[in-house]
Amino acid sequence: MKKKKRQFERLVDLYAQDIHRFALWLTKDHHTAEDVVQEAYARAWKNLDQLKDESVAKSRLLTIVRNENARRFQRKQFDLVDIDNTQVTASADSEPENRTEISIMRKAIAALPIDYREPLVMQVIHGMSCREIAETMDLPENTVMTRLFRAKQKVKGSLTETQSSNVARLYP
Q1: Does the pLDDT at position 69 exceed 50?
Q2: pLDDT: which is higher, 40 or 94
Q3: Closest Cα partner for 165 from 126, 108, 87?
Q4: How far apart are CA 23 and CA 11, in angstroms?
């Protein structure tokens, strides 16, 4: 039991930041991310005996976090709003003058479809290789490479559009 505890503590120490950061990207809320991470750790503890190769521990933990986040939506009942009766108003954040480069980049990444966003975050934020991403997402490596390419193209296009609109506002 002590050996299992030491092994688990070592894995948590090694990957806690990456796991929490990934959960935060998925949930976009600190409290929810902490809940997802705690549930993921509980599942990882239960299944620690099945982990034979510690070199895949990070990708396994990220997979557990993804699955826990998905379970959150299975349990939750969302309030529905009639979109035809909803008015959208511009906020101060929608003005280009009030956005920083980081927030523009985050919004561009957040606007990506989940199939493109997840592998991009895994590669850029977590430094995972295409093979690790493929294992985590249970996809062929070529599919991951294609999704990464398309995600980068979409972000680049989005940033180019943002810069063009900023220039157009400055020089009408």
Answers
A1: yes
A2: 40
A3: 108
A4: 17
Q: ∠ at Cα 62 (101, 104), nearest 5°?
A: 10
User: Averaged over 143-165, what is the pLDDT?
Assistant: 83
Place 105 in a pLDDT band, splitting at 50, 70 and 90.
confident
CB-based contact 64:133 (threshold 8 Å): no
How far apart are the C-alpha atoms of 97 and 114, rounded to whole Å? 28
d(CA 136, CA 15) in angstroms, rounded, equals 15
Rounded Cα distance, 64 and 44, in Å:
7
Check: pTM over 0.90? Answer yes or no: no
Q: Give, as one character, the DSSP assignment of residue 47.
A: T
